[in-house]
Amino acid sequence: MALLQDKVALVTGAGAGIGRATALAMAAEGALVACADIDAAAAQRIATDIAGNTKRAIAIEADCGDLAQIDAMVSRTVAEFGRLDIIVNNAGVTRFSTIMDLTEADWDRIHRVNAKGVFFCLQRAAREMIGQGGGCIINIASIAGRGHPGASNAAYAASKGAIIALTGKAAHELGPHNINVNAICPGFTRTELAKRNAVGRASARGITVEQLHAEQEATIPIRRANTPEDIAAMAVFLASPGARNITGQAYNVDGGLVQS
Fold this sequence. Notes:
48% of the residues lie in helices and 15% in strands. It has helices at residues 17-28, 40-51, 67-81, 104-132, 154-174, 192-205, 209-218, 228-239, and strands at residues 8-12, 32-37, 57-61, 86-89, 135-140, 179-186, 250-253. It has a seven-stranded parallel β-sheet with strand order 3-2-1-4-5-6-7, sandwiched between helices. Helix 4 runs parallel beside helix 5.
């Protein structure tokens, strides 16, 4: 039997990158998937790719920095599929910036989605999971939250550190309700968002994106960056029965770049 057979999974930021890969991977393991994204067309594309004629995926337009939209997103998932077993809090934003160039608007935009959004998605999902007897919450953090100096900016690093701290506290409080809460901390990952940031980084240094990528990969012990599928594979494992006694953890998926 597939690892996630007939489980209901909600993936935020499912329209591209890690979210898209995770939605596809969970569907491949038998899950029914609610694909949420602020870009309605992107959400619909991934849902269509998954669903085919099986009706095992839906698209939801949602801004994960807005509490009313978070509530509607979870409510729609439960209305369509009857329950919520897994949520992957993946939606996030950033931009490349030095610490002295960050603005209040940057801080508010980044924390609105990456910290506030993850918290309230977690809380809303937990309300459903408590009532049904359990569930699995997976938060996408980053090695930026571990203090890795390669973060796109300091506000982003702070937001991802917040996710790591939240994961531990939430696991402690939600454990008695049979809810597992874990985080994944990706290292360098070749996503659309990372590519846009790479353009800014490379331009600031007067090098090509290809040169930048080569430099990054030279620092990774295993000598390769992540693909989105690498992160998706960890998410599938953490949602699977094999991880039933794992909670409150934040796992680096970074090729050995960060050792703690």
